[in-house]
Amino acid sequence: MHPSHVPETVFHTRVRNDALGGANPFEWRDLSSGTIFANRRIVLFAVPGAFTPACSETHLPGYEALHGEFLSLGVDEVICLAVNDAFVMFQWARLLGAGKVSMLPDGNGDFTRGMGMLVARTDQGMGSRSWRYSMVVEDRKIRKIFAEAGMRDNPPGVPVNVSGAPTILDYLKST
């Protein structure tokens, strides 16, 4: 059973600050769930890990490609979440040329745990990770969640069957 509202947690992010200058003009910024989700319509999709095959080949690119359509349907922001740190999320987006979708690091898995979506991927040497899912959130309330079937620890892989961008887009068009 998933919560009816997004869990309250703090995300440790890195943001660009050109005033810092130099080769690494980024600084830490903590963002709360309230800051991200309050009074906003958000599409969030969670992936098992940055740089992993299905996440890199299908999941993130699908949301990046349809980003404009989400915004045209009243979505304020499209967010990709992974139990990875801010540095990994930044480099993954950079490698894929993903600049429309916001990358949200859940490095300690606090949000993912609160969602009931934290699974072990220890057989693959990946520690704890998010199960693959997507959701529509309006002012912190989870309106609809699409979680991939068979949630369990140490799956051989988690395909993108129901959590991809077309599914969320169809849902938004029907509401």
Automatic annotation (TrEMBL):
Reaction catalysis annotation: a hydroperoxide + 2 glutathione = an alcohol + glutathione disulfide + H2O
SUPFAM superfamilies per record: Thioredoxin-like
GO MF assignments: thioredoxin peroxidase activity
Entry function: Thiol-specific peroxidase that catalyzes the reduction of hydrogen peroxide and organic hydroperoxides to water and alcohols, respectively. Plays a role in cell protection against oxidative stress by detoxifying peroxides.
EC numbers on record: 1.11.1.27
Keywords tagged on the record: Antioxidant, Oxidoreductase, Peroxidase, Redox-active center
Keyword NADP attributed: no
PROSITE patterns named among the record's database cross-references: THIOREDOXIN_2
Protein known as: Glutathione-dependent peroxiredoxin
Record has Oxidoreductase as a keyword: yes
Active-site residues, record numbering mapped to chain: C55 (cysteine sulfenic acid (-soh) intermediate)
Limits of the Thioredoxin domain: 1-174
UniProt-listed Pfam families: Redoxin
Source taxonomy: Bacteria, Pseudomonadati, Pseudomonadota, Alphaproteobacteria, Rhodobacterales
GO biological process, one term: cell redox homeostasis
Sequence similarity: Belongs to the peroxiredoxin family. Prx5 subfamily.
GO cellular component: cytoplasm
Superkingdom in the source lineage: Bacteria
